[in-house]
Please model this.
Amino acid sequence: MRGGTSKGAYFLADDLPAEPALRDALLLRVMGSPDERQIDGLGGAHPLTSKVAVVSPSADPQADVDYLFLQVVVDRPEVSDRQNCGNLLAGIGPFAVERGLVPAGQEHTSVRIRMVNSGDYATATFPTPGGRVDYTGDAEISGVPGTAAAVVIEFPPSVNPLLPTGRVRDEIQGVPVTCVDNGMPTVLIAASSLKVTGYESPEELEKDGALADRLREIRLEAGRLMGLGDVSGTTVPKLTLLAPPRDGGAVTTRTFIPIRCHTSIGVLGAASVAAGLRIEGSVGADLARVDPGEDRVRIEHPTGFLDIESSLTAPPGELPTARRTAVVRTARKIFDGTVFPRSADTAPLPTNDPQDQGGQR
Model:
C-alpha cells in the first residue's frame, strides 16, 4: 500500500513469525535487503519505500488495532522498530477494514490505532460507502500524483514531553537547536546555522560531506539530551533544517532520516515541527510565519507542502504541551497477494540476530 508519501508492505501479525529475530530475517528477504537496489525483493531502493506495517487486533481498550512499524534498512541487514511512521499510518485503517479486523460503516469508518513503537494513539477516519473501503476521491497531497480519498488522522496529546530536554533551546556543537517530540523526536535547526540556505535539493544536501558530518554529530548528542541514549544505530531523532517560507507556507524544511534527505517530510515529523514553531523562543519561531489565531500550519518541503492542525497549551510558568494535532492524508491499495522471499540460507543475517533460525512462513 501507499500510505501518504511512503510505500510499504502491510502484514497481519499472524502471517509473520512471532519471534522478532525470525520475523526480521524474513522481512529482509521480502524487501530485498541488504542491497542498494533491493533488486531481489519488494523494496524500492529508498528508506521511504522500504517500510513494513504489522497489524493485529488490539487488547488495549483505547484501540481497535495495534500497528507496529518496521523500517527495513536498504543497504544493511537491519530492521528497526525504534520509531513510528505517520505516512504508513494512513493505510492502517483501510487495511484493518479490508482484513476484517474492524467492521466498516455504511458511509465512513473510524479506526482507533495504537502505535506499538511509541505507545501513542491515533484515530483514522475514511470513506466506506456501502461498507467497503473507497480509495478514490479528490484529496491531493504533495509528493503523490493524482487524487485519492481523504484519510483524516487525529492524534491525542502525546504521553511524552513536548520538550524532552526540558528546555526551549539547547546548543549542540555550537549550533542552537530545539528538541521537540509531538509524536516523532525531532531536532529543529536553522539552516543558516549550518551554512546552507535550506532551499537546496535533497540531492545537493546529500552530496555535502561536511554537512553530513555536522548532522551526525548533532544527532548523536541530541539523542542523549532527549533521553534516547545511543542513537548511532537508529533513525531517530529526525533532524529538520528550517528556512523562511517561499511558497506561502509557514516554513521551509529539509529533513534527514538520519542522513538521507527526505524528499518530502514525515507526518509525525511535521507534527513536531508545527508544534515547535508555536513555542516562543524556539529555533525557527523567529523565521516562520505562523498565525497564532489559526490552528493550520503549512509545512513546505522539497516536493510541496503538508498541512498540520496544531495547537498548544502553555500554563503560566510551565513548559507548553500539545493540545491538538490532526492531518489529512491519503492511502491506496496497490496490490494484494503472496510474496515469495528468497531462500533463508542465501540471506545475510540481521545485525541484531546472531543466528539465522529460518523464518519461512
Notes: The chain has five helices and 17 strands. The two ends are 21 Å apart (CA to CA).
